[in-house]
Specification:
CATH superfamily of the largest domain: Jelly Rolls
Radius of gyration: 19 Å
CATH class of the largest domain: Mainly Beta
Largest sheet: 4 strands, antiparallel
Helix content: 40-55%
Distance between the termini: 43 Å
Order of helices and strands: HHEEEEEEHEEHHHEHHEEH
Structural class: alpha+beta
């Protein structure tokens, strides 16, 4: 059963009344995944968007020689796979489970009917897409103005959130893809943070000791 409260927590659906929300729920399907399961492949046809109910999903692109760059990490309440709904093209990236996860699949068709019947609801869509564009602009700016060490500091802070002790839910290779650098360079940056006494690390568990220094280095 698809969780109504989960859908209502998504900005795209928070203005829907119970009747409209139930129509979306009836068309939706929850899918259980294990680590490594591919939700959709880059370039594949698209007919649904997804919401993460539990676990974590990596959104990534691959080069012609098989190298992977993770462009986003989706966690509970995050929505992905919506782009093809608006441009009718194939998937722009791959979505893969990083751990046992459950996603809610919502077919495009009932959403298209909903927005055609109630066009004012498209303002929520515009707001969501605007935020995605802003995030892309920020990521592009980071690639120009931040070095690998700065980008590593920024992503560690994003993964930590408000916590001082946290686990990184991805491998070193996946973290490097998220940063946009080689694993060796990202590991070197983390080693520098440890040497400076800014963080401690034990396997995938990290403890932030000097958050302010990391924040300064990430800007």
């Amino acid at each position: 059963m698809v969780d109504r409260e989960l859908l209502r927590s998504i900005e795209l659906f928070e203005d829907l009344d119970d009747e409209k929300l139930d129509q979306i729920i009836q068309a939706s399907d929850a899918r259980d995944l294990v680590r490594g399961d591919v939700v959709f492949a880059e370039g594949s046809d698209a007919d649904a968007l997804y919401i993460v109910r539990t676990g974590r999903i990596a959104i990534s692109n691959k080069s012609f020689d098989g190298r992977e760059s993770m462009v986003a990490l989706m966690e509970r309440g995050d929505l992905f796979g919506e782009m093809s709904l608006f441009d009718g093209l194939g998937r722009s990236a791959e979505a893969r489970a990083l751990e046992p996860s459950t996603v809610v699949a919502i077919p495009y068709a009932p959403l298209q009917v909903l927005w055609e019947d109630h066009p004012r609801l498209l303002w929520r869509v515009i707001a969501m897409l605007s935020r995605r564009l802003r995030a892309m602009d920020e990521a592009l700016a980071d690639s120009f103005f931040l070095d690998v060490t700065g980008r590593t500091a920024k992503h560690l802070l994003e993964l930590a959130g408000e916590l001082d002790e946290f686990e990184i839910p991805i491998t070193q290779e996946e973290l490097a893809g998220l940063v946009g650098a080689s694993r060796e360079r990202v590991n070197k940056a983390i080693s520098n943070f440890q040497r400076l006494g800014w963080i401690e690390q034990q396997d995938r568990t990290y403890r932030i000791l000097k958050r302010r220094e990391l924040e300064i280095r990430s800007k």
